[in-house]
From TrEMBL:
InterPro entries: PhoU-like_sf (IPR038078), Put_Phosphate_transp_reg (IPR018445), UPF0111_domain (IPR052912). Belongs to the UPF0111 family. It holds the Pfam family PhoU_div. Signal peptide: none annotated. It comes from the Bacteria. This is DUF47 family protein.
């Protein structure tokens, strides 16, 4: 760990942790959507929208702190990248839930539950990792595991696409379902972006 002679602004750590905790909330709402009756999905979507707004607020707070701080705990560009990538995760999860409701999807294709399980696990790992930015300790396993989960998500996504194009669904339904599974895949990619940013931060600070 590089020795510093200057104090560092520490509130960033708390804000990153809060943003990651909010992502866990979003992942739980995704899980809830899986087992919900069609009539209950609109209410879940409203709660997801509220969580997404909370995520936006957390991101704006980080940007405001970044713009008003003379000293930061690590590189400003990495703070910006980390906050933006965390925000992207919530955006993609909220978009997926909103699409399910807007398209009035009666039944999600088999395999979507596996996508969401991967996202839920990545959310837990991310929330556990953020407090460790204070010390930069015990983070290697985090980014390795999130990268493994993203590879798993890629495989699930490819299988889902093959299923959607097997002739079981009509063309309009395929377009609707593909957009949903693609957005969930983008959420998995965003988790990997967060993990890669954390790895970059640790390497720079070591």
């Amino acid at each position: 760990m590089r020795f510093r002679l200057t104090p560092r602004e520490t509130s960033f750590y708390d804000m990153f942790a809060a943003s990651a905790d909010n992502i866990v909330t979003g992942s739980k709402l995704l899980m809830e959507l899986l087992g919900a009756e069609t009539s209950a999905r609109a209410e879940i979507s409203e709660r997801m929208r509220a969580a997404e707004h909370a995520g936006d607020d957390a991101t704006h707070a980080i940007f405001h702190q970044l713009n008003s701080s003379f000293i930061t705990p690590f590189d400003r560009e990495d703070i910006y990248r980390l906050a933006s990538s965390l925000d992207d995760i919530m955006d993609f999860m909220e978009e997926a839930v909103d699409l399910v409701v807007l398209y009035q999807i009666e039944e999600l294709p088999k395999g979507v539950e596996q996508q969401i399980e991967v996202l839920a696990r990545a959310a837990e790992l991310t929330a556990e990792a953020m407090p460790n930015l204070r010390t930069m300790d015990n983070l290697t396993e985090y980014w390795i595991e999130v990268n493994r989960l993203e590879n798993q998500a890629d495989q699930i996504h490819r299988k889902l696409l093959a299923h959607l194009f097997n002739g079981k669904y009509d063309a309009i339904e395929v377009l609707k379902l593909k957009q949903i599974v693609d957005v969930l895949e983008e959420a998995a990619d965003a988790f990997e972006h967060v993990a890669n940013t954390v790895e970059t931060i640790v390497v720079k600070e070591s």
